[in-house]
Amino acid sequence: MDCNEVRPLIDASADRELSPVDERRVQQHIAGCAACQRETEIVRVLAGTIRQAGYHRAPDALRARIVAGLPAAALSSPPEGARRRAWRFPRFDGWRLPVGVGGGAANSGTAGSGWLTVLVIALCAAVAGVTLTLRRPADASPFVDELVSSHVRAQLSGRDIDIISTDQHTVKPWFNGRLDYAPPVVDLTASGFPLAGGRLDYLDHRRVAVLTYRYRKHVIDVYVFPDTANRAGGDAGAWPGSSGATLVRDGYSLVRWREDGMVWWAITDAAPDALSALETALKARPQPSE
Fold first, then answer.
1. Torsion-angle region of residue 192: left (phi > 0), alpha (psi -120 to 50) or beta?
2. DSSP-derived secondary structure letter, 243
3. What string of DSSP letters covers 104-169?
4. Which of 2, 105, 216, 253 sits most deeply, having the most CB atoms within 10 A of its CB?
5. pLDDT in tens, 84-131
6. What would the CATH number be for the domain defined by 141-283?
7. How far apart, in whole angstroms, are the C-alpha atoms of residue 239 and residue 139?
8. 10-58 pLDDT, tens digit each
């Protein structure tokens, strides 16, 4: 590991959040790097200072000043418990109405109006809730969240590539025996997306192939797996727009399309235009001869 890989993991190391394998790799680098040793010491001193800091209870004078600044109406209003106890529901012509709503001819018009207002508000709230549920964007599917989490974890761990190679004829055979399908692998250096390697990941309850490409200083992960309609990633309903539309989630751009019996998902922290260009380059790749 180099400094660029270790620096983002120093905080996690200090908090003991790394796996044993990653912790060993980080410590091996720190042992021979003076700059990372200084960075580690700063983090440890800061963490120790925070842990040893005393707890300061807010003084009573502060509470008094806050109470003094409250409006008089708020101070004179009955306690919440008293309001709840006053809210009883006696029977009235088959309906349960709040006490005072139906009391007497003099205020019958006001009572009826108040009851109808409460009923209308309740119905509107119910309809609004159902409408928001029905119109919730499909991009909120758990699969998209799982995909973003997979990409982020790989970048933070420093183990985003299992087979490091720019040669597609080295990367493609590596998946043999590790998957129940053969993912298409192609180097796109000529299009500005050099192949960096690949890895295995676990999404939607199955192993999937991930091809890693570079774009300038950005990493693009391309998830490839068979197009099966009963899976979240292959279901057309899991995507908010047409195939090839770009989605932005938590600062990451995503795009999905289908081709040659496969579902392709690409994700990166680069601009969405980069994914559109990558999709075009992958679709234009030479097809294997029969």
1. left
2. T
3. -STTHHHHHHHHHHHHHHHHHHHHHHHHHHHTS-GGG-HHHHHHHHHHHHHHHHT---SEE-S-HH
4. 253
5. 555 554 554 444 444 444 444 445 454 455 556 656 566 666 655 544
6. 3.30.200.100
7. 6
8. 888 887 778 888 888 889 999 999 889 988 888 888 877 776 666 667 7
